[in-house]
Specification:
The protein is mainly α. The chain is 76% helix and 1% strand. Helix 4 runs antiparallel to helix 12. The termini are far apart.
Length: 346
Protein backbone atom coordinates (compact mmCIF):
# COMPACT_ATOMS: atom_id res chain seq x y z
CA UNK A 1 0.00 0.00 0.00
CA UNK A 2 2.83 2.35 0.94
CA UNK A 3 4.58 1.57 -2.37
CA UNK A 4 1.40 2.44 -4.27
CA UNK A 5 1.05 5.74 -2.41
CA UNK A 6 4.70 6.60 -3.06
CA UNK A 7 4.26 5.85 -6.77
CA UNK A 8 1.22 8.11 -6.95
CA UNK A 9 3.14 10.88 -5.17
CA UNK A 10 6.07 10.40 -7.55
CA UNK A 11 3.84 10.65 -10.63
CA UNK A 12 1.98 13.63 -9.17
CA UNK A 13 5.24 15.45 -8.45
CA UNK A 14 6.60 14.90 -11.95
CA UNK A 15 3.27 15.66 -13.63
CA UNK A 16 2.87 19.09 -12.00
CA UNK A 17 5.25 20.96 -14.37
CA UNK A 18 3.48 19.51 -17.43
CA UNK A 19 0.03 20.28 -16.03
CA UNK A 20 1.21 23.78 -15.10
CA UNK A 21 2.57 24.66 -18.54
CA UNK A 22 -0.48 23.19 -20.32
CA UNK A 23 -2.78 25.15 -18.01
CA UNK A 24 -0.81 28.33 -18.73
CA UNK A 25 -0.99 27.81 -22.50
CA UNK A 26 -4.71 27.08 -22.36
CA UNK A 27 -5.45 30.19 -20.25
CA UNK A 28 -3.35 32.36 -22.57
CA UNK A 29 -5.12 30.96 -25.62
CA UNK A 30 -8.56 31.76 -24.19
CA UNK A 31 -7.29 35.25 -23.35
CA UNK A 32 -6.26 35.82 -26.97
CA UNK A 33 -9.73 34.84 -28.19
CA UNK A 34 -11.52 37.05 -25.65
CA UNK A 35 -9.18 39.95 -26.41
CA UNK A 36 -9.77 39.57 -30.15
CA UNK A 37 -13.53 39.75 -29.58
CA UNK A 38 -13.15 42.83 -27.35
CA UNK A 39 -10.95 44.60 -29.90
CA UNK A 40 -13.39 43.74 -32.69
CA UNK A 41 -16.20 45.25 -30.62
CA UNK A 42 -14.33 48.55 -30.58
CA UNK A 43 -12.21 48.49 -27.43
CA UNK A 44 -9.03 50.56 -27.57
CA UNK A 45 -5.92 48.41 -27.24
CA UNK A 46 -4.25 51.24 -25.32
CA UNK A 47 -7.05 51.40 -22.76
CA UNK A 48 -7.02 47.60 -22.52
CA UNK A 49 -3.34 47.54 -21.56
CA UNK A 50 -3.84 50.27 -18.93
CA UNK A 51 -6.86 48.56 -17.33
CA UNK A 52 -5.26 45.14 -17.53
CA UNK A 53 -2.17 46.21 -15.60
CA UNK A 54 -4.28 47.94 -12.95
CA UNK A 55 -6.09 44.64 -12.39
CA UNK A 56 -2.80 42.70 -12.39
CA UNK A 57 -1.30 45.09 -9.81
CA UNK A 58 -4.36 44.76 -7.58
CA UNK A 59 -4.12 40.97 -7.67
CA UNK A 60 -0.39 40.48 -7.22
CA UNK A 61 0.58 43.38 -4.90
CA UNK A 62 -0.93 41.89 -1.69
CA UNK A 63 1.04 38.67 -2.19
CA UNK A 64 4.27 40.59 -2.79
CA UNK A 65 3.73 42.74 0.30
CA UNK A 66 3.10 39.74 2.55
CA UNK A 67 5.41 37.06 1.15
CA UNK A 68 8.45 39.27 0.40
CA UNK A 69 8.30 41.44 3.52
CA UNK A 70 11.42 39.83 5.03
CA UNK A 71 13.42 39.23 1.86
CA UNK A 72 12.71 42.34 -0.20
CA UNK A 73 15.96 44.15 -1.18
CA UNK A 74 16.46 47.85 -0.53
CA UNK A 75 15.00 50.08 -3.24
CA UNK A 76 17.24 52.72 -4.79
CA UNK A 77 16.54 55.41 -7.37
CA UNK A 78 18.73 53.56 -9.89
CA UNK A 79 16.82 50.29 -9.43
CA UNK A 80 13.47 52.07 -9.62
CA UNK A 81 14.56 53.71 -12.88
CA UNK A 82 15.39 50.29 -14.31
CA UNK A 83 12.00 48.95 -13.20
CA UNK A 84 10.30 51.89 -14.90
CA UNK A 85 12.22 51.15 -18.11
CA UNK A 86 11.39 47.45 -17.75
CA UNK A 87 7.68 48.22 -17.44
CA UNK A 88 7.90 50.52 -20.45
CA UNK A 89 9.31 47.74 -22.66
CA UNK A 90 6.76 45.22 -21.38
CA UNK A 91 3.87 45.49 -21.01
CA UNK A 92 3.40 49.12 -22.16
CA UNK A 93 5.17 49.07 -25.55
CA UNK A 94 5.13 45.31 -26.07
CA UNK A 95 1.44 44.73 -25.34
CA UNK A 96 0.27 47.86 -27.15
CA UNK A 97 2.07 46.70 -30.27
CA UNK A 98 0.91 43.11 -29.79
CA UNK A 99 -2.76 44.07 -29.41
CA UNK A 100 -2.50 46.42 -32.38
CA UNK A 101 -1.16 43.49 -34.42
CA UNK A 102 -3.94 41.28 -33.09
CA UNK A 103 -6.51 43.90 -34.07
CA UNK A 104 -5.15 43.95 -37.65
CA UNK A 105 -4.87 40.18 -38.08
CA UNK A 106 -6.19 37.03 -36.40
CA UNK A 107 -5.49 35.36 -33.07
CA UNK A 108 -3.90 32.31 -34.75
CA UNK A 109 -1.66 34.46 -36.96
CA UNK A 110 -0.56 36.56 -33.97
CA UNK A 111 0.37 33.60 -31.78
CA UNK A 112 2.21 31.90 -34.63
CA UNK A 113 4.30 35.02 -35.24
CA UNK A 114 5.21 35.25 -31.55
CA UNK A 115 7.19 32.01 -31.84
CA UNK A 116 10.03 34.09 -33.31
CA UNK A 117 10.62 35.58 -29.83
CA UNK A 118 13.23 33.03 -28.59
CA UNK A 119 15.23 33.39 -31.81
CA UNK A 120 15.06 37.19 -31.67
CA UNK A 121 16.05 37.23 -28.00
CA UNK A 122 19.00 34.95 -28.72
CA UNK A 123 20.12 37.33 -31.47
CA UNK A 124 19.95 40.33 -29.13
CA UNK A 125 21.69 38.44 -26.33
CA UNK A 126 24.46 37.57 -28.78
CA UNK A 127 24.81 41.23 -29.78
CA UNK A 128 25.00 42.31 -26.12
CA UNK A 129 27.46 39.46 -25.40
CA UNK A 130 25.13 37.79 -22.94
CA UNK A 131 25.07 34.65 -25.07
CA UNK A 132 28.30 32.90 -26.01
CA UNK A 133 28.45 31.60 -29.57
CA UNK A 134 31.11 29.30 -30.95
CA UNK A 135 30.78 29.13 -34.72
CA UNK A 136 32.36 25.67 -34.89
CA UNK A 137 30.00 24.25 -32.28
CA UNK A 138 27.01 22.31 -33.61
CA UNK A 139 24.73 23.81 -30.94
CA UNK A 140 25.77 27.35 -31.81
CA UNK A 141 25.22 26.60 -35.49
CA UNK A 142 21.73 25.30 -34.62
CA UNK A 143 20.91 28.54 -32.78
CA UNK A 144 22.10 30.71 -35.67
CA UNK A 145 20.38 28.59 -38.33
CA UNK A 146 17.21 28.38 -36.20
CA UNK A 147 17.09 32.16 -35.99
CA UNK A 148 17.36 32.42 -39.78
CA UNK A 149 14.71 29.72 -40.29
CA UNK A 150 12.33 31.46 -37.84
CA UNK A 151 12.79 34.75 -39.69
CA UNK A 152 12.07 32.97 -43.00
CA UNK A 153 8.94 31.42 -41.47
CA UNK A 154 7.76 34.86 -40.35
CA UNK A 155 8.09 36.06 -43.95
CA UNK A 156 6.22 32.99 -45.23
CA UNK A 157 3.35 33.40 -42.79
CA UNK A 158 3.01 37.05 -43.86
CA UNK A 159 3.34 36.65 -47.63
CA UNK A 160 1.85 33.21 -48.32
CA UNK A 161 -1.89 32.57 -48.33
CA UNK A 162 -3.07 29.55 -50.33
CA UNK A 163 -6.41 27.76 -50.04
CA UNK A 164 -8.63 28.02 -46.97
CA UNK A 165 -8.68 25.00 -44.65
CA UNK A 166 -12.25 24.09 -43.75
CA UNK A 167 -13.44 22.78 -40.38
CA UNK A 168 -16.66 20.78 -39.94
CA UNK A 169 -17.96 23.20 -37.28
CA UNK A 170 -16.84 26.46 -38.88
CA UNK A 171 -19.74 27.17 -41.26
CA UNK A 172 -22.31 26.97 -38.49
CA UNK A 173 -20.46 29.52 -36.38
CA UNK A 174 -19.98 31.89 -39.34
CA UNK A 175 -23.71 31.96 -40.02
CA UNK A 176 -24.39 32.97 -36.44
CA UNK A 177 -21.43 35.15 -35.59
CA UNK A 178 -19.87 36.54 -38.72
CA UNK A 179 -21.65 39.88 -38.49
CA UNK A 180 -20.84 40.18 -34.81
CA UNK A 181 -17.18 39.30 -34.81
CA UNK A 182 -16.07 40.73 -38.16
CA UNK A 183 -12.98 38.56 -38.24
CA UNK A 184 -12.52 38.75 -42.01
CA UNK A 185 -9.71 41.29 -42.01
CA UNK A 186 -8.56 42.86 -45.24
CA UNK A 187 -5.44 41.21 -46.60
CA UNK A 188 -3.37 44.40 -46.46
CA UNK A 189 -3.88 44.56 -42.69
CA UNK A 190 -1.97 41.30 -42.27
CA UNK A 191 1.32 42.95 -43.27
CA UNK A 192 0.71 45.78 -40.81
CA UNK A 193 -0.16 43.24 -38.13
CA UNK A 194 3.00 41.24 -38.81
CA UNK A 195 5.16 44.37 -38.48
CA UNK A 196 3.46 45.29 -35.20
CA UNK A 197 3.91 41.79 -33.79
CA UNK A 198 7.58 41.70 -34.86
CA UNK A 199 8.09 45.08 -33.15
CA UNK A 200 6.34 43.71 -30.04
CA UNK A 201 8.71 40.73 -30.02
CA UNK A 202 11.66 43.13 -30.25
CA UNK A 203 10.28 45.05 -27.25
CA UNK A 204 9.82 41.81 -25.32
CA UNK A 205 13.40 40.84 -26.15
CA UNK A 206 14.60 44.16 -24.70
CA UNK A 207 12.51 43.41 -21.62
CA UNK A 208 14.11 39.98 -21.20
CA UNK A 209 17.63 41.35 -21.61
CA UNK A 210 17.03 44.15 -19.08
CA UNK A 211 15.34 41.75 -16.68
CA UNK A 212 18.45 39.56 -16.70
CA UNK A 213 20.53 42.50 -15.44
CA UNK A 214 17.89 43.74 -12.98
CA UNK A 215 17.41 40.38 -11.25
CA UNK A 216 21.04 40.52 -10.16
CA UNK A 217 20.51 43.72 -8.14
CA UNK A 218 16.87 43.06 -7.20
CA UNK A 219 16.38 39.26 -6.91
CA UNK A 220 12.89 39.36 -5.31
CA UNK A 221 10.89 38.15 -8.31
CA UNK A 222 7.42 38.57 -6.77
CA UNK A 223 8.09 42.14 -5.60
CA UNK A 224 9.74 42.96 -8.92
CA UNK A 225 6.66 41.74 -10.78
CA UNK A 226 4.33 43.76 -8.54
CA UNK A 227 6.42 46.92 -8.95
CA UNK A 228 6.64 46.40 -12.70
CA UNK A 229 2.85 45.95 -12.93
CA UNK A 230 2.28 49.10 -10.86
CA UNK A 231 4.71 51.26 -12.83
CA UNK A 232 3.44 49.95 -16.17
CA UNK A 233 -0.17 50.66 -15.13
CA UNK A 234 0.80 54.31 -14.56
CA UNK A 235 2.80 54.48 -17.80
CA UNK A 236 0.08 52.68 -19.75
CA UNK A 237 -2.61 55.03 -18.42
CA UNK A 238 -0.58 58.10 -19.40
CA UNK A 239 -0.03 56.66 -22.89
CA UNK A 240 -3.72 55.79 -23.30
CA UNK A 241 -4.79 59.27 -22.14
CA UNK A 242 -2.40 60.85 -24.64
CA UNK A 243 -3.52 58.71 -27.58
CA UNK A 244 -7.23 58.67 -26.77
CA UNK A 245 -7.45 62.29 -25.58
CA UNK A 246 -10.88 63.81 -26.04
CA UNK A 247 -12.47 60.37 -26.33
CA UNK A 248 -13.66 59.78 -22.77
CA UNK A 249 -16.28 57.26 -23.86
CA UNK A 250 -13.55 54.76 -24.75
CA UNK A 251 -12.86 54.26 -21.02
CA UNK A 252 -16.39 53.10 -20.21
CA UNK A 253 -16.82 49.40 -19.54
CA UNK A 254 -20.03 47.37 -19.57
CA UNK A 255 -20.82 43.74 -18.82
CA UNK A 256 -19.52 42.41 -22.12
CA UNK A 257 -16.35 41.02 -23.71
CA UNK A 258 -14.49 44.28 -23.01
CA UNK A 259 -14.87 43.96 -19.24
CA UNK A 260 -14.14 40.24 -19.40
CA UNK A 261 -10.92 40.87 -21.36
CA UNK A 262 -9.77 43.37 -18.73
CA UNK A 263 -10.49 41.17 -15.70
CA UNK A 264 -9.43 37.88 -17.25
CA UNK A 265 -6.34 39.47 -18.84
CA UNK A 266 -5.19 40.82 -15.48
CA UNK A 267 -5.74 37.42 -13.88
CA UNK A 268 -3.83 35.62 -16.64
CA UNK A 269 -0.92 38.07 -16.36
CA UNK A 270 -0.51 37.31 -12.64
CA UNK A 271 -0.98 33.57 -13.11
CA UNK A 272 1.45 33.41 -16.04
CA UNK A 273 4.15 35.31 -14.13
CA UNK A 274 3.81 32.94 -11.16
CA UNK A 275 3.69 29.69 -13.16
CA UNK A 276 6.57 30.74 -15.43
CA UNK A 277 8.73 31.63 -12.42
CA UNK A 278 7.87 28.33 -10.76
CA UNK A 279 8.64 26.36 -13.93
CA UNK A 280 11.89 28.25 -14.61
CA UNK A 281 13.29 27.16 -11.24
CA UNK A 282 12.33 23.50 -11.73
CA UNK A 283 12.62 22.86 -15.45
CA UNK A 284 14.39 25.84 -17.01
CA UNK A 285 13.48 28.16 -19.89
CA UNK A 286 13.78 25.51 -22.61
CA UNK A 287 11.00 23.45 -21.05
CA UNK A 288 8.67 26.45 -20.89
CA UNK A 289 9.34 27.61 -24.45
CA UNK A 290 9.05 24.13 -25.93
CA UNK A 291 5.29 24.17 -25.21
CA UNK A 292 4.65 27.49 -26.97
CA UNK A 293 3.40 25.86 -30.22
CA UNK A 294 0.63 24.20 -28.19
CA UNK A 295 -1.15 27.56 -27.96
CA UNK A 296 -1.22 27.74 -31.78
CA UNK A 297 -3.21 24.51 -31.94
CA UNK A 298 -5.59 25.58 -29.16
CA UNK A 299 -6.20 29.01 -30.69
CA UNK A 300 -6.66 27.57 -34.19
CA UNK A 301 -9.47 25.36 -32.87
CA UNK A 302 -11.07 27.95 -30.58
CA UNK A 303 -10.70 30.73 -33.17
CA UNK A 304 -12.41 28.77 -35.92
CA UNK A 305 -15.08 27.56 -33.51
CA UNK A 306 -16.05 30.79 -31.74
CA UNK A 307 -14.98 33.72 -33.93
CA UNK A 308 -14.96 32.11 -37.39
CA UNK A 309 -11.28 32.72 -38.14
CA UNK A 310 -10.00 31.53 -41.50
CA UNK A 311 -6.95 29.30 -41.72
CA UNK A 312 -4.90 29.40 -44.92
CA UNK A 313 -2.62 26.57 -45.99
CA UNK A 314 0.26 28.93 -46.80
CA UNK A 315 0.18 30.45 -43.34
CA UNK A 316 0.09 27.00 -41.74
CA UNK A 317 3.28 26.21 -43.68
CA UNK A 318 4.87 29.43 -42.44
CA UNK A 319 3.87 28.62 -38.85
CA UNK A 320 5.45 25.15 -39.16
CA UNK A 321 8.68 26.73 -40.45
CA UNK A 322 8.72 29.11 -37.46
CA UNK A 323 8.22 26.19 -35.05
CA UNK A 324 11.12 24.31 -36.71
CA UNK A 325 13.32 27.37 -36.20
CA UNK A 326 12.10 27.65 -32.60
CA UNK A 327 13.05 24.07 -31.75
CA UNK A 328 16.44 24.46 -33.44
CA UNK A 329 17.18 27.43 -31.17
CA UNK A 330 15.85 25.57 -28.12
CA UNK A 331 17.93 22.49 -28.93
CA UNK A 332 21.00 24.68 -29.26
CA UNK A 333 20.30 26.17 -25.84
CA UNK A 334 19.22 22.97 -24.11
CA UNK A 335 22.67 22.38 -22.58
CA UNK A 336 23.99 25.89 -22.82
CA UNK A 337 22.96 27.66 -19.61
CA UNK A 338 24.64 31.05 -19.86
CA UNK A 339 26.51 32.16 -16.72
CA UNK A 340 25.35 35.70 -17.33
CA UNK A 341 22.07 35.06 -15.58
CA UNK A 342 19.98 35.27 -18.71
CA UNK A 343 17.66 32.60 -17.40
CA UNK A 344 14.57 33.82 -19.16
CA UNK A 345 16.05 33.98 -22.63
CA UNK A 346 13.28 31.90 -24.09
Amino acid sequence: MSEKCSSIQFLSHHAKPYLGVIFMQFCSSIMSIITKIALTQGMSQHVLVAYRMVVATSLIAPFAIVLDRKTRPKMTLRIFGKIALLGLFEPVIGQNLYFTGLKCSTATFTVAMCNILPALTFLMAWIFRLEKVKIKSMRSQAKILGTIVAAGGAMCITLLKGPILEFPWKQVRILHNQSETGTHNKEEHITKGALMIAAACFSWSCFIILQAFLLKSYPAELSLTALMCFVSSVEGTILALAIERGNTGIWLLHFDAKLLSVLYGGFVSCTAYFIMGWLMKRKGPVFVSSFNPLSMVIIAILGSLFIAEELFLGRIVGAIVIVIGLYMVLWGRSKDQSPSGLETLC
